[in-house]
Amino acid sequence: MEEKKSILEYVPVLAFIASYFLLHLFDWMETTQFLLASIIGTLTYGLLVADLKMEHKGKKWNYRQLNFFIGLLTVFNLVLFFQSFLHWRRMVSNIARVSIMYVLLIIFIAILFRAIRVYSYHKTMLENKKK
User: Fold this and answer.
1) Cα–Cα distance, 45 to 60 (Å, whole number)
2) Whole-prediction pTM value?
3) Mapped to the 3 state alphabet, what secondary structure does the chain carry?
4) Cys-Cys crosslink for 19: which of 37, 76, 79, 101, Cβ 3.0 to 4.6 Å?
5) Per-residue pLDDT of the chain (131 residues; tens, 9 = 90+)
6) Of the candidates 123, 93, 88, the residue with the CA atom closest to the CA atom of residue 2
7) How crowded is residue 24: how many other Cβ atoms within 10 Å of its Cβ?
8) Do the Cβ atoms of 82 and 46 come closer than 8 Å?
9) How far, in Å, CA of 49 to CA of 111, rounded?
10) How far apart (Å, rounded) are the C-alpha atoms in residues 87 and 95?
11) CB 116 within 8 A of CB 9
């Protein structure tokens, strides 16, 4: 049962990866695919947090950290959009565009994994409080 929980908690990362590879079916720029995949990953994380809040609706609990990570991922999606705009308009050299894109992608993945760990912590604490 514990393995199922850990797999379900990584749904945002799996959604990001699956959507990225599905978006390769279209003939779009790489940065567009990363941007749309990051939006899908962020929305999936938001849905997980919303589901957790609805499941434990009557409990007094501080969801500030979870809300912070939703906001951080949203702001980071805006940063990815501005980087994509630079990429689409070819405002800087190709090496700089691709380097910035991959650095931002690594940062996004790191933030997403940290957000998932915080979500997992809150979920286990709420379930322990339930018992």
Assistant:
1) 22
2) 0.90
3) CHHHHHHHHCHHHHHHHHHHHHHHHCCCCHHHHHHHHHHHHHHHHHHHHHHHHHHCCCCCCCCHHHHHHHHHHHHHHHHHHHHHHHHHHCCCCHHHHHHHHHHHHHHHHHHHHHHHHHHHHHHHHHHHHHC
4) 37
5) 344 566 888 999 999 999 999 999 999 999 999 999 999 999 999 999 999 999 888 778 889 999 999 999 999 999 999 999 999 998 899 999 999 999 999 999 999 999 999 999 999 888 887 66
6) 123
7) 11
8) no
9) 15
10) 11
11) yes
Tokens of 40: 């899908």
Tokens of 116: 């998932």
> Which amino acid type is present at position 77?
N
